[in-house]
Fold this protein.
Amino acid sequence: MFTIKNYVMANTIEDAYRLLQEGKSNAILGGCAFLKLGAKRIGTAIDLSKLNLDQINETEDTIEIGAMTSFRAVETNEALNKYFNGVLPRSVASIIGIQFRSAVTVGASVYSRYGFSDFITALLVLDTEVELFKSGRIPLDQFLQDGAPRDILTKLVIKKSDIKASYQMMRNSAVDYPILNVAISKGAAGWKIAVGARPQRAALAMKAAKLLDSGEPKDADIEAAVNTAVEELTFGSNSRGSKVYREAIAKGLIARGIREVL
Ligand SMILES: Cc1cc2nc3c(=O)[nH]c(=O)nc-3n(C[C@H](O)[C@H](O)[C@H](O)COP(=O)(O)OP(=O)(O)OC[C@H]3O[C@@H](n4cnc5c(N)ncnc54)[C@H](O)[C@@H]3O)c2cc1C
């Protein structure tokens, strides 16, 4: 269990950021589910609960999801269910149970760049930017590569569009971490294929997606895209599944996702 020396409810995001910089052991609190798994000794724990960051706002061009929004709010939000075939609500719906999803937060989940994350894989096939207090707005794929040390994620900004999307995953049992997860999308800019829990963090299969871009893909195009995706991404082994098993599952889930989008 983690320990906390001082607890501060931040009144402004500027205060939260200043406190975070004041000591290496200071930390932002999300829903604390993941923090509870570890033994971190937190100097000052910084609570963002009063900063109005638990909102999902639809603007003319975007949907913005505040960092303190729970996965349950993502799952039940009307706009997120309306756009992109509800790919974001679908991606979180299998994580443990409703009580758990009511506590865990979007900001912690994305900032931590967990390899197993269901949510990140789905976000990656949309036009998603991450807003950080210090680093500003950056595309999600860039954030996943570079991170943003000792910053605070304030919100996600997703461009609205008529993107069609699908989410697929495989778990050993209903409440376990995913062995593999896949999201597929097709929009005006073409196809996107994201594969996560490889067990490395989600990445886009760019070459494979390009193979789908010339007209309506036929069975042979789908097969070529599936094989290319497995070649261009790296897969590994852990207690949930071997590299070979993951590669085999990836082929099935990617093909299923492409067909669902079609
Ligand atoms: C038992 C268990 C099973 C899980 N299974 C799955 C699963 O199957 N699929 C899946 O996708 N996820 C799974 N998760 C992860 C979960 O969905 C959350 O992503 C995770 O718990 C982090 O959210 P939190 O709100 O609990 O973060 P916390 O535990 O509060 O924080 C996690 C880290 O993020 C930092 N942090 C928090 N908020 C911010 C912020 N706004 N800016 C910067 N840093 C911040 C904290 O300082 C901390 O280092 C699981 C988690 C647990 C504990």
